[in-house]
């Protein structure tokens, strides 16, 4: 009687462990799919892949800058935040170009080097932009990224998803997938050893 209970408890434990392993594998596959449709396209579509050295030429803050969609209007589509414009000299090409924070900054507003988040209030945004401008004036030489193909003449300060960031994004689902497979293998080994012991 006791032996049957032990066998039943062992089978339940193996079933739960097997379900856990399969669940971990399924979750890791979903994470791979999510990363593949969100992060990977941004990484592959980015043309700013080569690193160089940029030297700040000027960093200006404009309180009122018209939207790129405006057509000559001076009153409509004015940004509610100060517009920081940073111009740099690129060592790789020797050109004077505009610096953007990331690839996303250029798409959101091509006239400003920095675009604040929507949830920030105006005082925090103004203080942050002034701090960024002063940092650029203090540290005038820094690494930046440019387009080696020449399709984009401007440069960016940092990439949204650098190679290390992409590897880090794939690290967690890989660990989960490996852990799930390890659990499944251990359960199968345990079942095989149990059958072999019973047979003997």
From TrEMBL:
<feature type="transmembrane region" description="Helical">
    <location>
        <begin position="20"/>
        <end position="43"/>
    </location>
</feature>
<comment type="similarity">
    <text>Belongs to the KCNMB (TC 8.A.14.1) family. KCNMB1 subfamily.</text>
</comment>
<dbReference type="GO" id="GO:0015269">
    <property type="term" value="F:calcium-activated potassium channel activity"/>
</dbReference>
<dbReference type="GO" id="GO:0005513">
    <property type="term" value="P:detection of calcium ion"/>
</dbReference>
<keyword id="KW-0472">Membrane</keyword>
<keyword id="KW-0406">Ion transport</keyword>
<dbReference type="Pfam" id="PF03185">
    <property type="entry name" value="CaKB"/>
</dbReference>
<keyword id="KW-1133">Transmembrane helix</keyword>
<keyword id="KW-0325">Glycoprotein</keyword>
<dbReference type="GO" id="GO:0008076">
    <property type="term" value="C:voltage-gated potassium channel complex"/>
</dbReference>
<keyword id="KW-0813">Transport</keyword>
<dbReference type="InterPro" id="IPR003930">
    <property type="entry name" value="K_chnl_Ca-activ_BK_bsu"/>
</dbReference>
<keyword id="KW-0812">Transmembrane</keyword>
<keyword id="KW-0407">Ion channel</keyword>
<feature type="transmembrane region" description="Helical">
    <location>
        <begin position="166"/>
        <end position="187"/>
    </location>
</feature>
<dbReference type="GO" id="GO:0015459">
    <property type="term" value="F:potassium channel regulator activity"/>
</dbReference>
<protein>
    <submittedName>
        <fullName>KCMB1 protein</fullName>
    </submittedName>
</protein>
